[in-house]
Write a structure and sequence with these properties.
Blueprint lengths: L3 E9 L2 H12 L2 E5 L6 E5 L4 E7 L8 E7 L3 H10 L3 E9 L3 E7 L5 E7 L2
Parallel strand pairs: 1-4, 5-8
Antiparallel strand pairs: 1-5, 2-3, 3-4, 6-7, 7-8
Length: 119
């Protein structure tokens, strides 16, 4: 299961506008997903959910797409990432009922997420 791209996520300052744009542009099905605290929407491209979108959590940060890589053991992956010169930008965070993620950068500065499903 691990070490493959598993999720794309858009963070934006205009969630309603982004939802409408991608719905019209690619005919994506975009549905609300229960998320305590902040609205979150899952993107279905035809077969199954492929990604999500949410309001940008921090002011001053540009709208962007992020990629997540599935790992079997998030803690082990974070430790390995740091041994190889990467940096943890956001430590282990739980998504209730789904799994855990961390946000990282590689030694060259490219950002990506690590994702571990619930067992």
């Amino acid at each position: 299961m691990g070490n493959r791209f598993c999720h794309l996520e858009l963070t934006t300052h205009d969630l309603a506008g982004a939802r409408e744009f991608y719905r019209q542009m690619f005919e994506w099905e975009i549905q609300a997903f229960p998320n305590p605290g902040k609205p979150y929407f899952m993107i279905n491209t035809g077969q199954e959910p492929q990604g999500g979108m949410m309001d940008l959590p921090m002011p001053g940060v540009p709208t962007a797409w992020s990629v997540y890589v599935a790992v079997d053991d998030l803690d082990a992956a974070c430790a390995k990432l740091e041994r190889l010169g990467g940096k943890i930008m956001m430590s282990r965070t739980e998504v209730p009922g789904a799994g855990w993620f961390a946000f990282a950068s590689d030694p060259q500065g490219a950002y990506f997420g690590l994702w571990q499903n619930l067992a």
